Amino acid sequence: MSDLSTFIAGLPKAELHLHIEGSLEPELMFALAERNGVAIPFASVEAVRAAYAFNNLQDFLDIYYQGANVLLTREDFRDLAVAYFDRAAADGVRHAEIMFDPQTHTARGVAFETVITGLLDGIADAEARHGMSVRLILSFLRHLDEADAFATFEAAQPWLAHIAAVGLDSSELGHPPEKFARVFAAARAAGLRLVAHAGEEGPPEYVHQALDLLGIDRLDHGNRSLEDPVLTARLARTGMTLTVCPLSNLKLCVVDAMADHPIDRMLREGLRATINSDDPAYFGGYVADNYRAAAEARGLDRDDLALLARNSFLGSFLPDDAVATHLAALDAYVEAQ
User: Fold this and answer.
1) Would the pTM of this model clear 0.90, i.e. be above it?
2) Of 31, 149, 183, 276, which residue is 20 to 30 A from 137 by alpha carbon distance?
């Protein structure tokens, strides 16, 4: 695996499914808690990591929202973003499309402007120091109601030039995509792209809703689509990108073991699958770790890994000329190995 591990680290890739709040490492959590005078329910970094034993999505979300309480200032959001981009650059990420959850922060009295300006500061740093391109995805929290999503979209209006897409995350079960059809239509009318989590814990029907009622451009997770052969064929035929997160799937018990992960089946079925890290601070690995875990467990070879990286650029919201540039760099890298 050592040669393959080196190949993965240098492989030019895009990351399309990353929650920036989910990259909050315990060390930074403690530093920000001290800086801001925020009490957190953990005595040490080790205690935080010990708490990362999840049985399902909701167990994770309970801790995720606790951790977010330390994020209060523009500087905090900048530091959070810079820390992620430094790790991503080391993993060969050339382009990142990162999700942020403004409702997690505005509900605590943190202004939308504080959140997005801090993230934009971090993006500017990534572009300057790493030559990385970045797009922002505003994610609505699906356990909240449609009115809250519309209020968030209204708060985002002055910043739409800096936002590429809207998404849908948080607790999936009991919160079908149809709940947000109108706010997604408003985002489409404003010229934004659309993504949504579906088919992680929720059934294939949620994927159908995301496609037919939300009109998504990209499907986050989508694992359970494989339970529906007609849906699987549709996703393959239309070239729908799936942003798959192997270590997340393992940590949240979407799969029982990495040996059971369907990433190679997705490729065999002709799906445009990609590999991403989701919430890496909580799930035990950044994007290269996810590539390595999938490769080792499912026997992926260099051609498979290069295809996954190719899919990540093809599934991005970059313009065609930028995609072509990245694909040429990817081909040159593979050829040189």
Assistant:
1) yes
2) 31
Are residues 101 and 141 in contact, defined by beta-carbon separation less than 8 angstroms? yes
170-187 residue pLDDT tens = 989 999 999 999 999 999
Neighbouring C-beta atoms of residue 8, cutoff 10 Å? 26
Which of 103, 116, 95, 26 lies closest to 317, judged by CA? 95
Secondary structure (3-state) at 107: coil
Tens digit of each residue's pLDDT (9 = 90 or more) over 107-163: 999 999 999 999 999 999 999 999 999 999 999 999 999 999 999 999 999 999 999
Cα 219 off chain centre by = 11
Q: Using alpha carbons, select from 112, 73, 117, 91 the residue that is nearest to residue 18.
A: 91
What are the counts of helices (DSSP H) followed by strands (DSSP E) for the chain? 17, 8
CA distance 90 to 73: 27
- The number of CA neighbours under 13 Å toward the Cβ of 274 is 30
Mean pLDDT taken over the chain: 95
User: 46, 200, 205, 296: which is the annotated catalytic residue?
Assistant: 200
Residue 222 has pLDDT above 80, yes or no: yes
Q: Tokens for 276, please give them.
A: 């991403």
Closest CA to 77 of 107, 105, 115: 115
Structure tokens at 236: 């393959």
Q: Which pLDDT value is given to residue 40?
A: 87
98: Cβ contacts below 8 Å, ≥ 6 apart: 15, 18, 19, 20, 81, 84, 119, 134, 135, 136, 137
200 labelled catalytic: yes
